[in-house]
Amino acid sequence: MRKPSVAILHYTCPPIVGGVEQLVAVHAGLLADRGYPTRVVAGKGEPFRADVAVWLIEGLYSKDPGLLAINRELEEGVVGSRFEVAVDRLEEELMAALAGVECCVVHNAFTLHFNLPLTAALHRLAQRMGGPRFVAWCHDISWRNELYLPIMRDRYPWKLLKEPLDRVSYVVVSESRRRELCELMGLGTDLVRVVPAGVSPAAQMKLEPETVELVDRLGLLQAELLMLAPVRITRRKNLEMSIRIVGGMRDLDVDSRLLVTGPPGPHNVRAGDYVEELRALRGRLALEEQVVFLFEQLDRGRSAYPVSDRMMWDLYSLADLLLFSSSQEGFGIPVVEAGLFRLPVFCSDIPPFREIGLDAVHYFDLDDEPMAVAMRIKRWMEEDMSYRLRRRVLAHYSWDSLFAQRIEPLILGAER
Question: Are 377 and 322 in contact (CB under 8 A)?
Answer without folding.
Answer: no
